[in-house]
Amino acid sequence: MTQQTQQTPPADSTVQSARDSLATATPGRVTLRSLRKVYGDDASATPAVRDVDLDIEPGEFITLLGPSGCGKTTTLRMIAGFETPTAGEIRLDDDLLNKVAPNKRPMAMVFQSYALFPHLSVFDNVAYGLKLKKMPSARVTEEVETALTSMNLGPYRDRAPHQMSGGQQQRVALARALVMRPKVLLFDEPLSNLDAKLRVQMRGEIRRLQRRLGITTVFVTHDQDEAMTMSDRIVVMNVGVIEQVDTPEEIYRHPLSVFVADFIGRANFLDVDVQGIEDGSARVSVLGRQWTVPSHPEVEVDAPVTLLVRPESVRLSPTDGRAVTGSVGRVLSSMFYGESIEYDIETEAGNLVVSVADPHAHETFSPGDYLDVGFEEGRAWLMPVGDEPQ
Ligand SMILES: Nc1ncnc2c1ncn2[C@@H]1O[C@H](COP(=O)(O)OP(=O)(O)OP(=O)(O)O)[C@@H](O)[C@H]1O
């Protein structure tokens, strides 16, 4: 049996004061202008990133989110300097970075694979960059100890990376980034290799750390929960272009495109007839009734539209109806998740996914039941069906 050494974790206040001493005095502002990347020599090839404009505010936690191949990693690697832009500008505060080598940019990157040196101890991994900068060794020791304490890693300083769990290795990678006191912290899918529970725990840990340090942070992920729970703002990308930049709540409630509505959270799209539009709200008819719903500024009466209704905004109640027509729908299936129950409901406007929180507080329904189906008007969102980028 292996004997577990009981390590006394440092008091929370020790960790916090180590974090405070690493806090960023001047977080950087990152500006991307018409940023473009075409891989290879063929200028007519499809760009991986197309003319991206983005302002990342000092101290902001911004996430690049999108499906595989949408260009988020390429964008991050251009900010870091690992890829050269084909066109456009990258600025940190007022400085143009395009021609600045990665190791000369005041930025640090944390990778999915941790990228630790396997033959070096935790201490030496964290010290590596400072030694390259020829910092006097007493200062190196002091700085590394502070970074290790800030990540609760003091007791592990002499271990090799392979003697640590994935989560611990990722914290070493973070300490190694922080010790350089960067103006911008970059993360490339840093939690993908961790198991589900640890991933959730690390989200909170990274976010708290980032807030405490006040450091500008660019985080790449394809996991929408990660993006929603961690970010000040999310940049949703699709085939090399930015579809929307906004707070998680705005992106969820008021997506600017069908792609964003579908990619973030779950969505029901209803075909509706539009009767009129005024001051950001529209009168529509669907499910046998008239509704007044908030509407996207670019919706026009005669142009193609769809009504977004999130699963938790659908309202169900018993009915005497016995046919799927008008407001009457029929339960196709139900799934009990403990904290919520989910139904698939057939309606004349299409099948709806419905999520009811706290099932014990509500009447539950069974497959075959007929129900009156409605939704919370104020939480629906009428949006144009535009040309999605190819
Ligand atoms: N080194 C490369 N050479 C050629 N094409 C590349 C290279 N790296 C990426 N690409 C292409 O550029 C596009 C964008 O890739 P990128 O890795 O930026 O996307 P991503 O959104 O980060 O995807 P993932 O989540 O799968 O990493 C893809 O079509 C990809 O195949």
UniProtKB/TrEMBL annotation:
Keywords: ATP-binding, Cell membrane, Membrane, Nucleotide-binding, Translocase, Transport. Residues 30-264 form the ABC transporter domain. This is Spermidine/putrescine import ATP-binding protein PotA. Its EC number is 7.6.2.11. Part of the ABC transporter complex PotABCD involved in spermidine/putrescine import. Responsible for energy coupling to the transport system. NCBIfam families: potA (TIGR01187). It comes from Knoellia locipacati. It comes from the Bacteria. SMART domains: AAA. It catalyses: ATP + H2O + polyamine-[polyamine-binding protein]Side 1 = ADP + phosphate + polyamineSide 2 + [polyamine-binding protein]Side 1. Residues 1-19 have a biased composition (Polar residues). Gene3D superfamilies: 2.40.50.100, P-loop containing nucleotide triphosphate hydrolases (3.40.50.300). The keyword Cytoplasm does not apply. PANTHER family: SPERMIDINE/PUTRESCINE IMPORT ATP-BINDING PROTEIN POTA (PTHR42781), SPERMIDINE_PUTRESCINE IMPORT ATP-BINDING PROTEIN POTA (PTHR42781:SF4). Coiled coil: none annotated. It is an enzyme of class 7 (translocase). One of its GO terms (cellular component) is ATP-binding cassette (ABC) transporter complex. The complex is composed of two ATP-binding proteins (PotA), two transmembrane proteins (PotB and PotC) and a solute-binding protein (PotD). Residues 1-23 are annotated as: Disordered. The keyword Membrane applies. Belongs to the ABC transporter superfamily. Spermidine/putrescine importer (TC 3.A.1.11.1) family. Pfam families: ABC_tran, TOBE_2. GO terms for molecular function: ABC-type polyamine transporter activity; ATP binding; ATP hydrolysis activity.
